[in-house]
Every structure is written in structure tokens, then in C-alpha cells.
């Protein structure tokens, strides 16, 4: 019997120990499956007492016998598998198959679900570039879409190909298989078993404290304690790769148990002036803390994933009822990963229509991650090392007006991304801000960063991209530098008036914020206050303003989130 197949559509090699699972089934059921033309696509077998045995495939389900399942049939299967744990799951030693039990009120097993486990190599080709960044990644999706399979492959790649110390927290032995010896599909990664599901958060902390991992892989983060343990691990500098219950990132925001994974939500009451400036109600929802996971992946289908490269930005936009910047990654018939960008920053209620509209998907350039073994002569420019490197190819943007304009991608390094995007939008520049240097045509940063971060130049040289430095994080400086980067003459009247107008508004806003903080909180209540992040020039104005009240203030934090703290007398 064939135990592996190659899926030509996505160039994935699929292996399974299907024979081991079939051997524990009742004889008649086993014969029917062995003769079935789609046996290699089997998803699970259902055996319920008094009902006919049922086989389930990706797109159909069939009965396997005219005779109902008997108690003797169930007992024969139960004796052939390992012990059932507290979560009513068992397995076959050194395989990835999962057997789940249904019990009656007396605790007797009256039903079994035998799910086929397969190690699928190549599943993470769509996000391998993200895995290699070292940032924590959260996988979301409905049951059966392949989250656990992807975790298993990520653990193997990190351990075997990137040579990292990987520990898997395997609560139900679903990632590394049943038994004390882990399945070969996880490579050199180590596995820690969880005796009881409710102890998973303790095992997570134990893994970090006792075994010094560089990466921790967790399946099914489902409780508040597990979410808190994940944050603790991330704060210790360990890369996290995990799954959580929910189809989309919005589901986690509405889940009070798991919302901490994406930063949590808190209600904030704004002052009258601030509410008018934002055009919102006085009571709004804001993100409470930095997300535990920097990247989130929504696995909508096996070959269509939606990537949130910056979870913090995504959550902030969702809370403001704006469409976040998304990546849609799919696999074509040649095994290439196609990345498209739907139009961002539109009302949330229009999101579903935009995802299906071809014109919106092509409004940003399309890129191809080609991980095939094609000849070097036929491949575009390569970023990476060795034969596992990724290829990036940028196509022309469809015409928006009378002529097409090539999109220039820009990576703002430790600068205000919102400010850069504001300048681009208001000046109508053909520039798109990206979240990583590997996808950028140029880097934009402050001059101070060039002096402080010596690895920045090396990183730019390694990727072959230029660096554009600005003296200050202001609209005027950014606008002039972006015009230079595009090789366009500076529209002095256009951006200077824009900059002057916005700078005046920002100065007024910064000083008004300081005045309200001093007069409404610091002086009457005697409490310190932290202001919003500002540029160095704006903080200087706030410092001078606070001195008029004979109060002390200091700047703290790192750019671009450095802000002022005002102390009571």
C-alpha cells in the first residue's frame, strides 16, 4: 500500500502511517477502506455504538458497512491503542494518529473518532520568510485546516535547518505522536508531554526555566493562564510559535480569555478636545499592551493564508474601525507563493467585499516567493542563502490614472510609520510602506540611528538597498527625503505648506495635551502623567511649557515611542 504521495499543486510530500491505523479497525471496515479508491485521502473514521461505521474524506463521507458497530468492535480498537488521557485522547505509538473517545454517563466508551495523522513536508513554504525572522507567530484557523501540521513542520525547519534549540509543548501528543519517542517529523526538536491539559501553562514555564530553548512551540492556547504564560515566555526573549482558537484576528479581540495574546483591550476616556480632534466618542477602546505575538497568520484554506505582519498595527486599526494592511498568500500551480495586498484603511464593514474584488487585490504590487528548484538562469533576484532562499519579483502596478506607476517599497526603521504613511498619502507618492528590509527598495531612518545602530548599514548592504536618513522625525524632513528617493523635483510650495500647517497643528496639540495633563491631573490630584509619544522637538516644547508651572518632567522610552512624563511638585 502506498504510504506517501506528491501533491503536484503545492509541491508537498505527504507521508503517513495509514496502515498502522487500518490494522486496529474491525476486519470488514478495514477491507472496505483498503479497497477504496480514495483511501490515501482519508481524514478520519467514526465508530459509534449501534451505528454504521463511517469514513470521512475532505469533501465527502461514506458508510463502510451495512452492519452497526458493536461493543466488541469498540473494545478491540480500545485494546489496540494506548491509554486514554484526561482529555479522552489516545494514540498509536510513534505515529501521528489521534483516537478520541465519547463516553456515557457511567464513563464507558460508546464512540471513537480515529483521525489520520500525516507529516506534510513543505507546508510552511508560504511563511518560511516570516519564520526565519525570529519573531513570534500565531496561527489561527478552523479545525482541520492544518494548524497542527504547520506547527510540526515549523518545529522541524527551525530545529534541523536553522539549527535552533526548539522545545514543543505537546498537550495531547498530537504534534510529535504518541509514546515516549517523538515522531521523526519534528526533526531534532525536543518534546515535553503534558500529563493533564490544565497543567499546560506550568509545563510552558518549566520548559523555559529548565531547558533553555530558543523557540517554544505550543498547540491550542485556550486558557487565560496559558495566554499569561505565553506572554511571560515572549518577554524572556524566546520565539513563540503557537495556535489559538479562532478563525480570524478579530475573534481574539472579542475573546476576553485570549485577547492578551494580541495586546488586550482597555476602555479609555478621552478629554473633550481629544475626542473632537479624533472625531470619536469620549469613551473608546484601545490596545492595552504590546502583543505577545508579533505576526499572526489566518489559515483560511490549505493554500490561502492571510498574514498580519504587524499585529500591533492591525489591532489598532481594527479598534478604530479601519481596515488593516493585509497580505494574502496563495500557492499557484507552479508551487510559487503569490503575495497580494488588498487596499488598506477602509471601513471594516466593507472588508468582505474587498477581499473578493480583483481590482482591490491588484491595487498593490504582486510578489512571488519561489521556493522551487528551478534553474538559476530562469530565476529572478534572490534574497537569502543556499537553495532554500526565497525569490522576490515585483510586477508593475495596474494603471490608476492615465499611465502606470511602479510602486517603490520603503521600510521605516525606528521611525513613526503612521507619519511616513501620512506624508505618502497626502502627497500622492507611489510608495508603499513594508514591515521588513527584505521586501523594501530602500530604508528610511533617522541620522541618529545610523550612529547608534552599527548593524543597520551591514543589514542594508546585505540586502543591497540604500538608506535615506532624515535629521528629524517631521513631515517636512520626511517629505523632502521621499522626493529625493523618487528622483522627483521637490514640490516646495506643496509639501512646505502642508508641513507648516501640520507642524503648527501638532505643536498646538502637544502643548494642549500638556496643559490639560497639568491642570486636570498633576496639580489638582498630585499624580504623575505620561503624555503621548512625540518627536524630540515637540517634547522640548512640552518640557518648556511644564516649567512655567514650576513642575519637573522627563523623557523616557525609545524612539519612536519616546514620551514625556510630568511629575507633581
Itemize the secondary structure elements and their pairings.
Blueprint: E1 4-7, E2 12-16, H1 18-22, H2 27-34, E3 44-48, E4 54-57, E5 60-63, H3 71-80, E6 89-91, E7 98-103, E8 109-115, E9 118-121, H4 128-131, E10 137-140, H5 147-161, E11 166-170, E12 190-193, H6 200-211, E13 215-221, H7 224-235, E14 239-244, H8 249-253, E15 265-269, H9 272-278, E16 283-287, E17 295-301, E18 304-308, H10 311-319, E19 327-331, E20 336-340, H11 351-356, H12 358-361, E21 367-370, E22 382-383, E23 390-391, E24 408-412, H13 417-427, E25 431-433, E26 442-446, H14 447-452, H15 455-463, E27 467-470, H16 475-486, H17 492-525, E28 529-530, H18 536-547, E29 552-556, E30 563-567
Parallel strand pairs: 10-14, 10-17, 11-12, 11-13, 13-14, 24-25, 24-26, 26-27
Antiparallel strand pairs: 1-2, 2-9, 3-4, 3-8, 4-5, 6-7, 7-8, 15-16, 17-18, 18-19, 19-20, 20-21, 22-23, 28-30, 29-30
What are the key terms here?
569 residues; six-stranded antiparallel sheet; 30 strands; 18 helices; alpha/beta; disordered N terminus; ten-stranded mixed sheet
Can you tell me the overall shape? elongated
**Poorly predicted ranges (pLDDT <50, ≥5 residues)?**
1-15, 344-367, 370-405, 490-501
Residues in β-strands, percent: 15-25%
Q: End-to-end span in angstroms? A: 82 Å
